[in-house]
Every structure is written in C-alpha cells, then in structure tokens.
C-alpha cells in the first residue's frame, strides 16, 4: 500500500482516538493516578498479561534492560507483578501479573470500555456495523502478524 495512503489512515486513526478520548469523563486517569501508575508501567502490565522475560519487556517498551528492571522492581514492590526463573532459561527472569495486577487491569479495562461505549453510542447503526467489521479485520490481521513475529523470534532465541 502507498505510504501516502498509510499516512492518511494513520492521521485518521489519530483523529478517531482523539474523539474516543473526548468521552472519558474522568474514568481512566483517576484510576491510573490512584494506583500511582505511569503510562510506561501500564504498558508493562498490559504486556505481561502472559509471562514475559525482562529482555522481552525492554524490547517491547523501548527501554534499556537496567531501566526496565528498575521499573519491574517498582511493580514487584507494589505486588502488581511477580518475577521468577524462566522455565526455558534459568538466567532469564519471567515476569507475570499477580492477582492484584490482574484486578487493576480489569478495572482500567472496564473504565476504557465505558469511555468507548459513551463515544460509540453517538454513531449511527450503519457506522457501528462498518466500524466493527473493519476493526475485527484489522485486529485479526495485526494479531496474526504479531503471532508470526513472536514465533520467528522464539525460533531464533532457541536455535
């Protein structure tokens, strides 16, 4: 696909998200503030929904391993994640959500859902149907691509 078409679509997605956020009504940010959670920490929590290595987390969020380790230490102290030896490599540490971390993510997800419902309720029925189809296709393709990349990365790491 042409880069100008992708640039136009990227701008449109940005506008769409900005409109979606207009209806937050103080739902999500107060949760993050009350939990004393930064956006990078939230990104880590969402990423370790399945156990991940520290290096995998660092690569995902674009921070150095030491900076990522410090962030994970803070999340461990707050009992939002736990760190344990990786099943595949004892030198690596696996990081995963605790029950408290899962509960916090569930509250944040519920607040996001309410925010999105408030936004989507303003659309016509026809627009909702078209948006649902387009988003379903996009999410399916993105998840398939991410799965392929993850499988390739896993093969390289364990070769």
Give me the secondary-structure topology.
Layout: H1 3-21, H2 29-34, H3 39-47, E1 52-53, H4 54-61, H5 65-77, E2 81-85, E3 93-97, H6 99-120, H7 125-157
Antiparallel strand pairs: 1-3, 2-3
3D architecture notes:
This protein has 159 residues and is mainly α. The protein folds into 2 domains: 23-122, Winged helix-like DNA-binding domain superfamily/Winged helix DNA-binding domain (Arc Repressor Mutant, subunit A), CATH 1.10.10; 124-159. It has 7 helices and 3 strands. A 3-stranded antiparallel beta sheet has the order 1-3-2. Strand 2 and strand 3 (93-97) form a beta hairpin. Helix 4 (54-61) crosses helix 5. It is globular. It starts with a helix and ends with a helix. The mean pLDDT is 86.
Would you kindly provide a brief summary of this structure?
The protein has 7 helices and 3 strands, in the order αααβααββαα. α4 crosses α5 (65-77).
Going by helix content, strand content and strand pairing, the class is mainly alpha
Low-pLDDT regions? none
Q: In total, how many beta strands?
A: 3
Mean pLDDT: 86
Distance between the termini: 34 Å
Q: What does the overall shape look like?
A: globular
What name is given to the CATH topology of the largest domain? Answer: Arc Repressor Mutant, subunit A
Please give the count of helices.
Answer: 7
Order of secondary-structure elements = HHHEHHEEHH
The first-level CATH class name of the largest domain: Mainly Alpha
**CATH architecture name of the largest domain:** Orthogonal Bundle
Percent helix among the residues?
Answer: 55-70%
Give the strand line-up of the largest sheet.
1-3-2
Task: Specify the CATH homologous superfamily of the largest domain.
Answer: Winged helix-like DNA-binding domain superfamily/Winged helix DNA-binding domain
The portion of residues forming beta strands comes to: 5-15%
Count of spatially separate domains? 2
What Rg do the Cα atoms give?
18 Å
Main β-sheet description: 3 strands, antiparallel
